[in-house]
Fold this protein.
Amino acid sequence: MDSENKIVIRNVTLHYDKFRALDKISLDIKKHHVTSLIGPSGCGKSSFLRCLNRMNDLVEGARVDGQITLDGINIYNNSEIDVVDLRRRVGMVFQKPNPFPLSIYENVAYGPKILGRVQKSDLNLIVERCLREAALWDEVKDRLSSPALRLSGGQQQRLVLARTLATNPEVILMDEPASALDPISTAKLEDLIHTLKSSYTIVIVTHNMQQAARVSDFTAFFLMGEMIEYGITKSIFTHPKDQRTEDYITGRFG
Amino acid sequence: MNRYARQRIWFLVFWSVALVTLSILLLLILYILANGLSSLSFEFVSASPSRMGKEGGIYPIIIGTLMLVGLSLMLAAPIGIGAAVFLNEYVRQGAATSLIRYATETLAGIPSIVFGLFGFVFFVIKLKMGWSIISGAMTLALMVMPTIVRTAEEAMKAVPLSYREGSYALGANKWQTIRFVVLPSAIPGIAVGIILSFGRALGETAAVLLTAGSSLNMPQTLSDPARSLAVHLYILASEGISMERAFATASILVMTIFAINLLANFLMRRMSSRFSQF
């Protein structure tokens, strides 16, 4: 593939105290493409995702060995990059929508406000831009100050996406973003992912293989902490190289 | 007996229990008000007492009470909330935190008179602060702090991990997450703790008598002694000075508690409506 690598993962091993959750994972995340991580429950794909924005730092006893670089910079090297800056550049959408118990406006404005540098007028523009990018603007433009928790599940997830976009990230990590949503909201979210990839790099963890096939350019198959296979989505799903991949895809387990 | 009938009987049982509880409460309040309201007048709350409280009003006592309770909360709330933030968010949970929590729980159960004795020996005598509002307020603050720490901790524990994760994932640091997400979500719970503490401080009698004294003069500074409403009520009744005025003072106390609770409910509802799904 001739597109450049946004994130390069080499021999990454993750331990939670004595438990080894990931074993020597090596992978390339291509810029402006969607990479999906598939595999059965508990195989480590969410843990892996959380390594990419150092959310595992918050877990006591978590230890990451190996190397992860973002645009060539080692993200675990505190002298090369500040973890706060990393999380601004690599945003995350969680499985269950988690808008703050604040208004819609305040949710989207949270990131820029935290990072400090914004005027009120600029904030209005940022909020509008992000809500538009997340395809939520038309539905909420007249009630920006109403509580975010009153939105439906699908709307909340798009709000969380808008909130993530407000920090101008380069990468968006999505951890099973549609698993709590109904089919229509899921379809809307998938369309959004398709639109967003031209401006961002997206990594999505999903349980739903049809979704992975629909939405992603590259797919990595995880099993019990190891990455079994990785390649162009179409190849993985039509002629997988590893027997275990084929078994999973054809539904023999997981 | 069929299931439906049994349900109805249980319903009636619980209903009656609730009714009895409410009735007793109502009876108590109405009895006090019935005996006290007649002695209440604008003069009563605005004038100073004369003849040891047999005549006149309770104005300096109201002021003294406000100063005592107000100062105690101003001391206890920031320290209590700060301690709760520290225990909950900054310290690794383990033996040390369990010990601190156990100590806090124990403090919460210690009888008020013991605090009163401590306050008397330590603040009034040893630190030479004498019978004063400051001695009384500090003693009251010690009494209510465990409650504030406990309710603040519970309120913060109730904030879901998903909110904190959302904040960290956006690039916030720990203090920003606490300040902008955890504390605001915890405020209704913390407010409850403060209201409860207000109620307790208002009702304390022996400890206040031992540390703030029982002077009927208008307190001018924090080192002046002062008499609180509860202490005044006690003295009027136990020394047989004036039962009518004792009831009147009690009525004021009861009405104040009512008003505070109404305010608390109103504030909590307003704050939660910003935060809730309904």
Remarks:
- Chain B touches chain A through 24 residues (CB under 8 Å).
- Residues 108 and 167 of chain B are 34 Å apart (CA to CA).
- Chain B is about 75% helix and 0% strand.
- The two ends of chain B are 40 Å apart (CA to CA).
